[in-house]
């Protein structure tokens, strides 16, 4: 059988894999996805929305409106049962979005299709062997692929991670729950409920938010989440498992039947010791698993993809040395480690005993104060992410604010400069005072003035710089003070050495 070749092969066509494929395709890299499901229509609804930082990420690629037009804007960030209102945060998207994962995947798949990324549906990566120049990828149908790099976006049980021998240290589960989309003969009590057995909920995929309250449509499938009385097995759950769990918790299974999908999740908390082994990389759930508290898993994975995509593209194209990939683990591993920590804390606060309830009451009182509220809300919504790119101006390593700019060609937003995932150098001082000719083939140089205040969700107002170098993922890599001091080093570090001649 003939060997098919791609620059990058992605194992897994969920949100992380789709986002990564889009990022690579924007950079002109030949990328393909291998997805075990026969089509995207079989995506489940395990995740239920997007946080503010993820909406910003989609906005900087020019596709946020596709999601906003189908979802429900709402305040979704919270911790330990305390809901946060981030409507006073300095971002265009000072809210979350209620939108089930199947719709998120469908919209992302449509975008990836526009970028002509091939997806090998109905196949799985079953093994691989890497050498000095690439990776031979084995598929379940026997058809071999050859890639320069393989990225495992294949979930918490990632075959890619296991086959690469990457350790997955962490903590075993202490609680287990079933989540499903099913038909029910009887109407269950919609909403989230807590009793001595744990937390369970019932909802409809078709709903609206009116005056801050969820209003469900009549009929149709029901989304179910029910806590199991014992840690479930690692095998795929059955309809009988779901029925038994419902009867144990609710006293009835409401005539559950015709499951569309059933899945089991636990509070198992683990993180890959390394996000890279040679030419094999990990992203999303393949590199970190945790309890779903706070709805941070899908969002963290999508942001993994946006951090990795432009770096991998530059290495594949020979623009940057392979060492640039080391910054992917260095930047994203601490972000996920923090998510693991706050989800473990949230699970601990869900325990029904009186002592834990007392801790929860103290936490609620604390989070009612302004400074703790802002700190935790920024953490839960992803708005406080900060990469270590060096010391200096507080903008360094943080997301560039989506300012309204005025250029010679007219008004423009910062995020619109990033639609093609190209880095940008904003000269906000005297036009023509910055020269980046050796990098002009890679970095856009825009002379502009700005409107409005410079504010960051985690910092408040910051002093306006004279120039800013923005990476393709929207984070600031260099801040100018009216001179070009350090600019050449930053350009070389992030976008490769200067062009000769």
Automatic annotation (TrEMBL):
It comes from the Bacteria. This is 2-polyprenyl-6-methoxyphenol hydroxylase-like FAD-dependent oxidoreductase. Keywords: FAD, Flavoprotein. The keyword tRNA processing does not apply. Its cofactor is FAD. GO terms for molecular function: FAD binding; oxidoreductase activity, acting on paired donors, with incorporation or reduction of molecular oxygen, NAD(P)H as one donor, and incorporation of one atom of oxygen. It comes from Arthrobacter bambusae. InterPro entries: FAD-bd, FAD/NAD-bd_sf, RIFMO-like. Pfam families: FAD_binding_3, Rng_hyd_C. Residues 7-343 form the FAD-binding domain. SUPFAM superfamilies: FAD/NAD(P)-binding domain.
């Amino acid at each position: 059988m003939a060997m098919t070749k791609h620059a990058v092969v992605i194992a897994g066509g969920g949100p992380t894999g789709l986002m990564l494929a889009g990022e690579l395709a924007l950079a002109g890299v030949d990328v393909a996805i291998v997805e075990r499901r026969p089509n995207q229509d079989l995506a489940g609804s395990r995740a239920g929305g997007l946080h503010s930082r993820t909406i910003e990420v989609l906005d900087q690629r020019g596709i946020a409106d596709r999601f906003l037009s189908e979802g429900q804007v709402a305040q979704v960030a919270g911790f330990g049962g305390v809901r946060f209102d981030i409507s006073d945060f300095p971002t265009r998207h000072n809210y979350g979005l209620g939108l089930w994962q199947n719709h998120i995947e469908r919209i992302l798949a449509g975008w990836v299709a526009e970028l002509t990324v091939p997806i090998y549906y109905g196949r799985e990566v079953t093994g691989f062997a890497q050498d000095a120049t690439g990776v031979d990828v084995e598929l379940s149908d026997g058809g071999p692929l050859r890639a320069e790099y393989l990225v495992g976006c294949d979930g918490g049980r990632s075959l890619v991670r296991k086959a690469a021998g990457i350790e997955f240290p962490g903590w075993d589960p202490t609680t287990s729950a079933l989540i499903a989309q099913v038909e029910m003969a009887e109407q269950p009590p919609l909403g989230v409920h807590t009793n001595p057995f744990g937390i369970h909920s019932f909802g409809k995929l078709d709903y609206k938010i009116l005056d801050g309250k969820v209003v469900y449509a009549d009929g149709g499938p029901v989304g179910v989440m029910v806590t199991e009385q014992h840690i479930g097995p690692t095998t795929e759950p059955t309809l009988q498992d779901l029925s038994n769990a419902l009867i144990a918790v609710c006293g009835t299974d409401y005539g559950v039947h015709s499951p569309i999908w059933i899945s089991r999740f636990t509070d198992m908390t683990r993180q890959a010791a390394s996000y890279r082994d040679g030419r094999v990389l990990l992203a999303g759930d393949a590199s970190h698993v945790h309890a779903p508290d706070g709805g941070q898993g899908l969002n963290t994975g999508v942001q993994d993809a946006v951090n990795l995509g432009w770096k991998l593209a530059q290495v594949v194209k020979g623009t940057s040395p392979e060492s640039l990939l080391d910054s992917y683990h260095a930047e994203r591993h601490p972000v996920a480690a923090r998510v693991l920590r706050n989800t473990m804390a949230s699970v601990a606060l869900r325990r029904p005993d009186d002592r834990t309830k007392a801790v929860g009451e103290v936490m609620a009182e604390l989070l009612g104060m302004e400074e703790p509220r802002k700190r935790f809300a920024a953490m839960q919504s992803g708005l406080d992410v900060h990469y270590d790119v060096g010391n200096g101006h507080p903008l360094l390593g943080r997301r560039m604010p989506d300012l309204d700019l005025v250029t010679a060609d007219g008004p423009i937003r910062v995020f619109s400069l990033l639609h093609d995932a190209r880095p940008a150098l904003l000269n906000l001082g005297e036009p023509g005072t910055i020269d980046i000719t050796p990098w002009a083939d890679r970095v856009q140089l825009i002379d502009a003035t700005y409107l409005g205040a410079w504010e960051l969700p985690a910092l408040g107002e910051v002093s306006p710089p004279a120039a800013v170098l923005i990476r393709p993922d929207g984070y600031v890599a260099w801040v100018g003070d009216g001179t070009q001091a350090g600019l050449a080093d930053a350009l070389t570090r992030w976008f490769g050495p200067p062009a000769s001649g």
